[in-house]
Amino acid sequence: MSSTIAAEPKSEQEILSTYRQMQSEMQSLVQQLTKFELERNEHRLVEETLEPLDPDRRAFRLVGGVLVERTVKEVLPTVREHRSNLDNLVQSLKERLDSKQKEAAAWKAKYNIKTQEEMEASNRQ
Q: 113 and 16 in contact (C-beta within 8 Å)?
């Protein structure tokens, strides 16, 4: 995790700029997380499809844009390994996102930043 707070900001503009940067980083993490969760789910589906099949049955795998013929026993361990790596990556991204959300919430509370919706809600009351 990179520290976005190098020194105490001097102006309201710097405070808001830092907060917007945190929001942008969180949005980027959410997009990455969604992408890798979808990919992980695809790997899980392929794994569930291949498990009951005969290990010597032909299976096709896309490698670098080329469809390669293999057997189920050759493909299944690779799919499992990739899914496991994706599980770890998704977990890591979730932890980074949680950390960034806590950091942004602390920044927001410290400098009493209110979003447009919060301002409108407080004006209605």
A: yes
